[in-house]
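FAQ: What does a multi-protein file look like?

Like this. Sequence, then tokens, then the next protein.
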Amino acid sequence: MTTRARVLTLNCRNENAMELFPSRRWTRRRPHLIKFIKDCAPSVIGVQECTNNMAAQITEGLGPNWTFWGSGTAKIIWDAVKWVALDQFQAGLPYRHLGLTRQRPITMLKLQSIKTGEFAWFVDTHLVVNIPDEEPIRQQQIRHAITLIEERPDHERVIFFGDFNSVPTDASVRKIASNAGYRHLRAKLSPTMITRRTYNTFNGWKITKRESRWIDDVLTSSAVKPYTAAIMLTDSTKFPIAASDHNGVFAKVQFGLPPSP
């Protein structure tokens, strides 16, 4: 039986970040970000730069049936009326910076559709940025992430959320993922199936420019088919103040049938 899911990935901007402008602080942005999610109406969300406090307040705002998992700042949030968790895994993607070993979180949750009984792994991560040699480090991190996914049981169906800090098509992060069987939205969908396809996913608190800077994405394994997608704006064209410094990437996906040839 085919299972369809509305999914969203979003960098929420960590509440502990230094914000000189009051409008960028979490307490001011929170209701707008919750409204943004409600407007998108997903049933599973991958969030980055999201503390436990932020995730608790988001799920409370979405309703009593919503919950989250992940102890790091990359978390999965889901509608428990539609999904039940079967398995979970989290780890760090290590890298070296200033002589120290650090880690970026990766969170994986195996969710089963209550309606159809079918399941998939939902994965979320946030790769490095703003450090020397960041692109080779991101390459190492995406390889490590793929290895961790493939070590999980029943890993054929994967919806992979992320702030990859890398633009699509020719960027090495997506090329490595594609070689391993994970395609990004632009590679899998025709331009007519992706609305607002020329907008940034990183808006930097400004009105979103049309320069195709997709640093956030939804990757899918070959057994998962996205059939529509969109950049969903969080900027000041849509809300009184920007809900985040990133826009959301929304997709409708399906799985449960043999993958398309």
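And here is the next protein:
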Amino acid sequence: MPVPGAPEVGVTAYLQAGSPCPRATVELLRELELAHGDELRVEIVDIDDAGSGADRWRDAGFDCMAIVINGSATVSWGEGEDRRTVSFLHPAGFGWRHEDLREAIEAALAGRLSPAAPEEAEAVRLMDVNVRAQSVRVGDSGHETGQLVVDDRVVLEVTEAADDLVPGQRVTVAAEALGELLEEPFTPNQLRTEEVEGGVAVVVGDRHLLVATEADARVTGVGAQELAEAWRLAVHDALVMAALERSSVKEPEAAAG
């Protein structure tokens, strides 16, 4: 329950309102808004809105999804060993979970939430995501296809050799590099593409995960740049989905209290 005399809490959520990814986050925010009545104001800003939504998002200084509580996206609550500092950036599952959002808003309602510097926040990382490579033989010829797998999802397939590596070896290199990235502060928004010798690479920092070659492009019927971008997006979406699946939508015990 809010503390008597505590200021009204305002939450602004900068989300891709039309995407299924933040749906559970929106449901949680609406649930809390309904539960706390006039004490809690929730505004959803659609960052895919080419008009005011996108402008407001950029003017707020963000380049990713963000949830702002009383003017701050990075906040602290609790005391001593129980103190938490969380940045509500990127989708749920990257550095924060839905129970964190619930706790932060309830702390704000109790007058116990304070702004914090981003460097105080816990590292943004994916936890317990299984990334691996596998090879399969397709068709009567037994031609090898290398598959990059995130959890149980086949994210992309490679059928051509490159740099003396067969398809299975190519995706093995990609899986190993991606696995190393997940041990560091990392979000999928860091994935990008860039032209390199031999094609267009999916890149994070100085790591090349996989290079889309002209041979790859011919097989798929698209240009190397378009193929690399498709690979980047496929890896990005698979990691986001894996993180979302590890983020609880609701905590019944907390809701009951």
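Q: Is there any per-entry metadata?
A: Some entries carry free-text notes. For the entry above: The chain has seven helices and twelve strands.
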